[in-house]
Design brief:
Two copies of one chain form a homodimer.
Chain A lengths: L2 H17 L5 H7 L4 H13 L3 E3 L5 E3 L1 H23 L8 H8 L5 H10 L25 E2 L8 E7 L4 H9 L7 E7 L6 E5 L2 E5 L1 H4 L2 E5 L1
Antiparallel strand pairs in A: 1-2, 3-8, 4-5, 4-8, 5-6, 6-7
Chain B binds a DNA duplex (30 and 30 nucleotides) through α3.
Amino acid sequence: MTLAEENYLKAIYHLEQQFKKGVSTNALAEEMKTKASSATDMIKKLAEKNMLTHIPYQGATLSDAGRDYAVKVIRRHRLWEVFLVEKLNFSWDEVHEVAEHLEHINSDKLVNELDAFLGFPTYDPHGDPIPDKEGNFTYIEKIVLAKAEVGITYKCIGVDDTSSKFLKYLDSNNIGLGTIIKILYKEPFDNSIKLGLGKVEIVVSQSVAKNLYLKKV
Amino acid sequence: MTLAEENYLKAIYHLEQQFKKGVSTNALAEEMKTKASSATDMIKKLAEKNMLTHIPYQGATLSDAGRDYAVKVIRRHRLWEVFLVEKLNFSWDEVHEVAEHLEHINSDKLVNELDAFLGFPTYDPHGDPIPDKEGNFTYIEKIVLAKAEVGITYKCIGVDDTSSKFLKYLDSNNIGLGTIIKILYKEPFDNSIKLGLGKVEIVVSQSVAKNLYLKKV
DNA sequence: ATTATAATTTAGGCAAATCTAAAAATATGT
DNA sequence: ACATATTTTTAGATTTGCCTAAATTATAAT
C-alpha cells in the first residue's frame, strides 16, 4: 500500500462511518481535497487490490481487507497522537499534521511497542477510540452539544472538527477532554447555548455546539 | 525536499565524509542501490536547488545548505534510533529500517521535543554522534579494531557495517557499545585477532575487525 | 599519441498520482 | 417523458523518480 492509497482508504472509511452507505466519487474527492477524476482512478486501483468493491456510477464500499487496513492506519494515527500529547508536549491542535505522517510508517513492532509504552491507551487526545492490535475498539455513543438537554451535566469526550482554529478556541475557553459542562440555557433565536464550566458561564454559537461531543455523567 | 532528495543528500554527505572528496556518480549510484543515470538525474535536480555544485564528468560537492540539510536528516535518524532502543525495546540491529522512515518527518517541534524527551543524547545506539539543534556535533576519533595494538585495552564505541547480520553476530558474542576489549594477539596468517572480553577470550576474523570501532580507555 | 576501457551523460520510456476538458451516465423538474 | 443539470468516467497531459540503451567524455595502456 502506498501513502496515497492509505490516505484514500482512511477517507473512505470515515465517509462510510459518517453516512452509513457507499461512498460517492464526489464525496471522496472533496474529503481528499482533490478532483473527482483522481478519486475515480484511485477507486479503480483499490478495487483491483480487493480493498473495496465499486459499481460505476454508484458508490464504493470497503471490503473486509480494506476496512481492516483502514483501521490499522487509524490505530497508528491515534497512538502517535497520544505519544505527541503525553510525551512530547504537543497541544491537541498541533498533533494532527505530524500524526498524518507518522501513521504511514508500517512496522508492527513499532506500533505495538508504542502501544505498550503508552500503557495501551483506549482514547486519543480528541476522544476518539484507539483500535487494539486486533482492530477492535468500542465506540462510545457521543451526544453532540447542539442536542444536549438543558439542566443536564455532561463530560466533554471529543470533537468533530479537528482544525487548529477550533481546538485553539476550545483551549482559550478552557474546554478540553474531560471538562464537565452543564447546559444552562438554549437560545432559540440563534441556537446559541449557555454553558456552565465550574463557576464560569460562557455562551457558545451553534457552530461550536455542532462540533463538540459529550456524554452524560 | 522530497523523500528521494533527502536520501540522496544523506548518501552524498556520507560519501563526502568517507572519501574526503567530490562524490562520483557511480559511487552515489552504488550507495543508493540504483543506476548511474538515476544518480545523474538527481544530482542535476539537487544542483538546481543549490544543495550541491556539480561539474559534469567530475564530482558533486554539497553546498552549505546541502550539508546543513543532510545533517538535519542525520540528526532526526539518530534521535529516532535512540528512541527505538531506549523506549520501545528495539535491539540495535532492528532500528535502522524504521529510523529510515521516521527521519523524513520534517517537524522542528517534533524533533526538538523528542531530543528533550530523550535527555539530549549525544550518541546513537551505534556510537555515532547526534548533531544538536544547530547541527553541531563532536566527532570522536575512532580506531578500527583491525589497527588496534596488542596489549592495549579499548572500549567499543561504534560499528561501520550496520547490517542486521553483523549486529546480531556482535550481540551473540556479547559485544555492544561500551564493551571493554583487550587485544591479546594478532594472527599474521589470516589477520584474525584474539580478544579478551572480561574473562572470555574470542577470536574474530578480519572482516569483523574492519567493522568495529574502538577508542582507548 | 592513439586506442581501449571505464565513467558519465543523454535520450526515450514507464508507473504513480495528479490535473483539465470532454464525454457518458444518472437524476431531477415540470 | 423529456430536457436539463449533476455526477461520474474517460482521454490525454504533467511531474517525479526510476529504468535501458546509446552516445559522449575521461582515463589508462601500449
